[in-house]
Design brief:
Length: 393
């Protein structure tokens, strides 16, 4: 069992930042107050470290991370690679069937975090002012990964930098029911090739970058009731806020003023909620009988006639257990608790499990003590401790 009790982060920085979602957000204790990137492709996030022989960087932790892929590199002060790896960004539960509300895609409804948190223990520690560098990418089209309703087909501009997403029938997309569109998602307009090298017919509202070049002997035809917008303005934007379910006029606000157009893709945002890197308090593995479970904030309403209604809300993980500690280990845990008390902290609650368990994703949480740990003296050399932790979402 490990507790990342000594964060050795001296600074955090990102290649890009969506306004209102700075990189510094990862240093707070609110996982849903995230850093969000503005990139549609590949982004770099850097944690600068202040380490020493007495305060080595032994592990890193991430909570509320969302990306299609994520690789990391641990570097020393000279910039040399000490260790590297890849985080598993596969969704824990997902179906390949869209538009059916009775598949595992319901996992995305009102869920606080789509990926598990990550607690990575380094094989080699850093004892100088090195860094952890993440490379995160987004590339999957979530517009057609809807849980309910229809896929995203177009964007309609209702006002400056505001409007709605529509399906192919022209009806507004209910963002809550769709389930795969978030603040920070990239809305990418349909853009025609430039230069035009073949005879082409525009059959939906489409963008073209300016200046637009039509090669000799080629023709461009624009069907009635459709437009081709030739522009120097961005042909994509990020969602900065969603009012209600996003179906009302101007219900979705964007980072730039996107004209009415067909939509080619809706990409996931790249974001991180909590980031820590530092020294850990290493304690023995919990004793036999360790308990793991969930705290479900969903609403369940049983009806007097046997009916049932519900509202899906996020879930948090809970663990309860005990450990046998040496007197020195017990004192170290007491010192930690006297300092942190109710403050949440990254915890790796199981360690040394078989590789199939994937402990760096499944055996950790960003949690707080639900009540103070209790110590029992077994003899002059050993104490037992009982504790209960709940995840912060």
């Amino acid at each position: 069992m490990r507790i990342l009790n000594e964060d050795r982060t001296s600074a955090v920085s990102a290649g890009t930042t969506l306004s209102g979602f700075p990189a510094s957000n990862v240093e707070n204790d609110r996982p849903r107050k995230t850093w969000i990137s503005t990139t549609q492709a590949s982004e770099t996030f850097t944690i600068s470290l202040n380490a020493s022989a007495g305060y080595p960087v032994e592990a890193m932790f991430f909570h509320g991370l969302l990306a299609d892929t994520c690789t990391w590199v641990l570097k020393n002060q000279a910039g040399s690679t000490v260790e590297s790896g890849t985080l598993d960004c596969t969704f824990p539960a997902e179906s390949n069937l869209s538009g059916n509300p009775n598949t595992m895609n319901v996992s995305f409804v009102n869920q606080a975090h789509l990926l598990r948190s990550f607690f990575v223990v380094f094989d080699t520690t850093v004892t100088d002012n090195g860094s952890v560098v993440l490379t995160l990418t987004t590339s999957q089209n979530m517009g057609s990964a809807n849980i309910e309703g229809n896929a995203v087909a177009s964007w309609v501009r209702d006002g400056a930098s505001a409007g709605r997403l529509l399906d192919s029938g022209g009806d507004a997309i209910n963002i809550q029911n769709h389930g795969r569109i978030f603040v920070g998602s990239h809305v990418v307009g349909l853009e025609i090739a430039n230069p035009l090298t073949t005879n082409t017919t525009v059959s939906s509202n489409t963008f073209a970058s300016s200046p637009y070049v039509i090669n000799a002997s080629n023709t461009l035809t624009i069907d009635a009731s459709n437009t081709l917008t030739v522009t120097t303005d961005p042909t994509s934007a990020q969602i900065t806020s969603i009012t209600g379910d996003g179906t009302a006029s101007s219900g979705i606000a964007l980072s730039s003023d996107l004209a009415t157009a067909s939509i080619a893709q809706v990409y996931n945002p790249i974001r991180i909620g909590i980031a820590r890197a530092g020294k850990t308090l290493d304690l023995p593995t919990p004793s036999k009988g360790f308990k793991f479970g969930y705290k479900d904030y969903s609403v369940r309403r049983g009806q007097p006639t046997g009916g049932y209604s519900y509202q899906q809300r996020p879930i948090a993980r809970e663990v309860q257990g005990s450990s046998v500690l040496t007197t020195a280990e017990a004192q170290a845990l007491q010192n930690f608790y006297r300092g942190y008390r109710s403050k949440p902290v990254p915890v790796l609650f199981v360690e040394g499990m078989p590789s199939a368990f994937e402990e760096e994703e499944k055996g950790n949480l960003f949690g707080y003590f639900q009540q103070p740990p209790r110590f029992n003296f077994l003899n002059k050399d050993y104490q037992s401790v009982q504790y209960s932790l709940c995840e912060v979402i």
